[in-house]
Design a protein that fits this description.
Chain lengths: 350, 350
DNA sequence: ACTGGAGCTGAAATCGATTTCAGTCGATTT
DNA sequence: AAATCGACTGAAATCGATTTCAGCTCCAGT
């Protein structure tokens, strides 16, 4: 029961509530004997301090704000679960906000975080810059960016190696003989989008190829956009032999488009994608993907925040996690070497 | 900013904080003129009352506890999102707890709800009975069951028509000519599992058939169990021509098993399942499913709770939502009518 | 022996709201 | 003219913790 108040413990231990508070907060200046008595009394009564009263007095709630785009996206679901696990273990509550990729909603919630005086904030920002963190700074509320970076390099950050991951994925396409490669990516205003494009570029360039802009499209990471862009790219003549999709929702949209266009994978078009989800092993063919360690991402971010809270002056840290290539069947060795590859760029139209 | 306190508003309006409180709570006994002044002052200062202080004084936090089995299950994700939307709109926060289908964890969290003095609790119980709600009752914290029922009929409940849905789904199999039907279901200790079995039974019985117990297995609604049970059923001789799977995670497991066994759908075995998920339309063949209105489920539950809070004496209500049959390709007309159907039961071995 | 300081303790202030209670004012009743 | 009542208002108590501040004891240093 939560009925027991601090004065009840104090009475039972024969001390004042001040002493009880000191003992429970592990503060010095309490005789060991009293400390024992208080601890015993608290134990016996099953005392649990009221967070509400504590928060009112200290002006700081044990709450971690978590701003993500959408909890219905399994990528974030797993991340959220990790944050909650860590938070609960340290007696923090989590205040979850869905920004829906909408900067205004994001700002609204950020202001709310200040008003609610949360202890710290984890954010997967809708864009790299323009996010107003003045309020947080003034209120001395630490911020950790997760999954996507912020322009401001003074914030702790946890991200995956998007450049390397994308590069590896595209290299896998190249190794299988594909040269005419299209891509659907999140926009460059989101760091993960830009970095994945960078990885694509590096992979191609390393083999003396150039990205074909007519086959490369970017858009908000939502399913509808993936569908639209895939239809656009695959409706062109000529169309690419392979597609690199840079986000799980875009992938789902692209798959729908490919189905509706009556194309087969990997025969008509090969596919590699960023992010793995349970079902991607079950579709036919299974998708070759770069799996992100989503749970780890959330865990690392939450732990980074807690460390920052413990020591506000520690140097800014950036954690870089490595994604994992999972090879399935959506990309098989391609036999088309008869055609002169040197013309790929020359025949470009965009 | 949240810097403005009630006394600031009071000072600005030239009244006491008591009057401000009365105005903002819409209580009587305030001169209309003062009311206006207070409202104006509050508006100008952008006053937002501190929930912390309010909670301490009223001994009631504006928090809705939400106990589900696992936020990583998309079924619940959507439900959670609905609850949060409704809650936020009414200035409630949501306290989310993952029970992981573990009754002990569930009980722990229920006790925590009491300790935290939440306003109300939404629960998708791990089992029908044995859930100890004494604490909640004593603390007068209302409870709403969602997705699954509780034995105690005095609690408000929001569920889908599991019997009807399962029956409709199995009838669809029967209409396509299948007679030898296996099933993988959640256990009868969970009401949805029992009800879906009931639906199966009704559908069969209505056509003069009996369920074949050798082909019917139940287990905790997790993927691994779906895999295990599907292998078990499909490894038998003879094996059923069709499978009815009663839960999304079980379905995912079953699909893996079918793949690993090298069976094709619907050629070797047809499949219908409860619950729809985005990817079920994308696998090949697309799955014929009974889609549950998950968002609606959450919304209805949250709203029911709010209504109960407004009027604690209103009669207990049960909301029954209707699932929707989505026909895809995992179950096609079956041609095997040459075989005498009357022997189906006679040839049973379990 | 006196001073200073460290160790320890509890009374009381504090956080920001709600709510009780006592009281004022003006109109109506007796 | 006094009593009564209803409408209205604000001072102060209250929720349960933390923290300040003042005071006490005891011991070391001069």
């Amino acid at each position: 029961m939560g009925r027991v108040r601090i004065v009840d413990v104090a009475r039972r231990a024969g001390v004042s509530s001040a002493t009880v508070s000191r003992v429970l907060a592990n503060k010095p200046y309490v005789r060991p004997e009293l400390r024992q008595r208080v601890l015993a009394a608290a134990q016996e009564l099953g005392y649990r301090p009221s967070r509400v009263a504590r928060t009112l007095r200290t002006q700081r709630a044990r709450i971690i704000g978590l701003l993500i785009s959408d909890i219905e996206n399994p990528f974030f679901t797993s991340l959220v679960r990790a944050v909650e696990d860590v938070a609960y273990a340290h007696d923090y509550a989590v205040f979850l906000c869905n920004t829906d990729e909408n900067p205004e909603k994001e700002q609204l919630y950020l202001d709310l975080m200040v008003a609610e005086r949360v202890t710290g904030v984890l954010i997967s920002p809708t864009r790299e810059q323009g996010v107003d963190c003045q309020g947080l700074q003034q209120a001395q509320i630490p911020l950790v960016a997760v999954d996507r970076r912020l322009r401001d390099r003074r914030v702790d950050t946890v991200v995956v190696d998007n450049v390397g991951g994308a590069r590896r994925l595209v290299e896998h396409l190249l190794d299988d003989g594909y040269r005419e490669i299209g891509a659907i990516l999140p926009p460059p205003t989101i760091t993960s989008g830009r970095e994945r494009y960078q990885g694509l570029w590096e992979a191609l360039h390393h083999r003396g190829l150039e990205p074909r802009s007519a086959w490369i499209r970017t858009g908000p990471p939502v399913q509808a956009e993936g569908y639209r862009l895939a239809r656009e790219i695959l409706g062109r003549h000529p169309r690419p032999q392979a597609l690199f999709v840079g986000n799980n929702l875009l992938t789902m949209g692209a798959l729908r488009a490919i189905r509706d266009l009556g194309l087969s994978i990997p025969g008509d078009v090969a596919l590699v994608a960023f992010d793995d989800m349970d079902w991607m092993a079950l579709v036919n063919p299974g998708l070759t993907v770069m799996a992100q360690p989503t749970y780890e991402l959330g865990r690392a971010a939450a732990e980074l925040l807690l460390r920052r809270l413990e020591d506000p002056d520690r140097p800014v840290e950036e954690v870089l996690l490595t994604p994992e290539l999972r090879i399935r069947q959506s990309c098989a060795p391609h036999l088309g070497a008869g055609r002169p590859r040197g013309e790929v760029r020359a025949s470009g139209q965009g």
